[in-house]
Specification:
Blueprint: E1 19-24, H1 28-37, E2 44-49, H2 55-62, E3 66-70, E4 72-73, E5 76-77, H3 78-87, E6 96-100, H4 105-114, E7 118-121, H5 126-172, H6 182-199, E8 203-210, H7 213-220, H8 222-242, E9 246-251, E10 254-260, H9 264-280, E11 296-303, H10 311-327, E12 333-335
Parallel strand pairs: 1-2, 1-3, 3-6, 6-7, 11-12
Antiparallel strand pairs: 4-5, 8-10, 8-11, 9-10
Helix pairs in contact: 7-8, 8-9
The chain binds guanosine-5'-triphosphate.
Length: 336
């Protein structure tokens, strides 16, 4: 005898009595004898199928815990039926006990190769029949229980992974503007700085500050200020994506755009693009801004890290350029 294998596909747990036997045999008398044998076992339900062509559909509908399959049915090879059960996903692991008048070892081998779990020579002793049916049904039930516990575990693991991913995202993203937060920027900038030092490549930084934003808040209110910051952040993020850079909220109304393997000339182009796109947002500016639309000032710097420079030097350079941009009238990009 062999117990059913475990499966990756979810299994259906049969409802109703704990032992449900489907007898597939064209001789009605076998069904009568089997019922008589099992009369003293009220927890064993028996259903009989006399026609081979109905067997698979009946089994799918009944969800037995064991199938007793006659090999010598008219018009069909019983082993073909065994294979047909195995092709049905719902029946793939249901124990199949072959009933045969033939005690030939070759026939037994063919039955097991076709997918049978057991082989009984007709008609066995009642005690043996009951024991085999109970053994296979119990093994199948245990397999189903194990499978459903495994599925539940997998579902809860996936939910946990999704929650962890969301938590990780929340720790990296600024809640108002959805760009990276300062903490993530600091980590990422340090990593990219080290990488640029190793590669000997340029790394560029743009410090971007919204102009006259205190007046904007005072004039239009803090909520309008929040919405303006969100629009400006979306613009910076889309420019950052175009150069595979990182957009981050550096603090308050100040943003940073960091781009690896980017020259000062390229940083200038990125900065001009941010300035122009913020103008295209057409967010009305508040007095004393001389411009009709809300604008940003940008300081851009780039360097190849070496033993004498720190990442803070690049920030300081970009910051100095930003102050120059403010002094020169805002709504512009300034580089050294
Ligand atoms: N609505 C809103 N305002 C913010 C937020 N963070 C910072 N601010 C405001 O941004 C304003 C920044 O003002 P300042 O530092 O004086 O700069 P500014 O008015 O933009 O002037 P310049 O930078 O010189 O053009 C302050 O009024 C802050 O309250 C925020 O999350 N939401």
């Amino acid at each position: 005898m062999s117990a059913p294998d475990s499966a990756a596909a979810p299994l259906l747990e049969p409802a109703g009595p704990s032992v449900r036997v489907l007898l597939v045999d064209d001789q009605a008398v076998v069904g009568v004898i089997l019922r008589t044998m099992l009369a003293a076992d009220p927890d064993i339900e028996v259903q009989t199928c006399l026609r081979a062509e109905d067997a698979v559909a009946t089994a799918v509908q009944m969800q037995p815990t064991a199938i007793l399959q006659d090999l010598g049915m008219p018009g069909i090879d019983g082993l073909d039926l065994v294979r047909a059960y195995r092709r049905q996903p719902e029946l793939q692991h249901v124990p199949i006990i072959v009933l045969s008048a033939n005690d030939d070892p070759l026939m037994k081998r063919a039955s097991f190769s076709a997918g049978a779990n057991d082989y009984l020579v007709k008609l066995p002793e009642p005690i043996e029949t009951t024991a085999r049916i109970r053994y296979h049904s119990r093994a199948y039930r245990l397999l189903l229980e194990r499978d459903s516990a495994y599925q539940a575990l997998r579902a809860s693991q996936q939910a946990l992974l999704a929650r962890n991913e969301e938590l990780r995202r929340l720790t990296q993203v600024d809640g108002l503007t959805n760009v990276s937060n300062r903490r993530y920027f600091d980590e990422h900038f340090a990593q990219e700085w080290s990488l640029a030092a190793l590669e000997g490549t340029e790394i560029a930084l743009l410090m971007i500050d919204v102009d006259h934003f205190k007046s904007f808040n005072d004039h239009f209110g803090h909520l309008a200020g929040d919405a303006a910051l969100q629009s400006v952040a979306r613009t910076i993020r889309s420019v950052a994506r175009s150069c595979e850079g990182l957009a981050a909220r550096f603090g308050g109304e100040e943003f940073a755009l960091m781009a690896s393997r980017t020259s000062l000339a390229q940083a200038m182009v990125l900065g001009e693009s941010v300035c122009a796109q913020v103008q295209q947002l057409r967010i009305p500016a508040a007095p004393p801004s001389p411009h009709p639309w809300l604008s940003v000032s940008i300081g851009a710097a780039a360097m190849v890290p070496d033993a004498a420079t720190l990442s803070a030097d690049l920030i300081a350079q970009a910051d100095a350029c930003l102050y120059s941009a403010k002094r020169q009238g805002r709504n512009r990009v300034v580089t050294r």
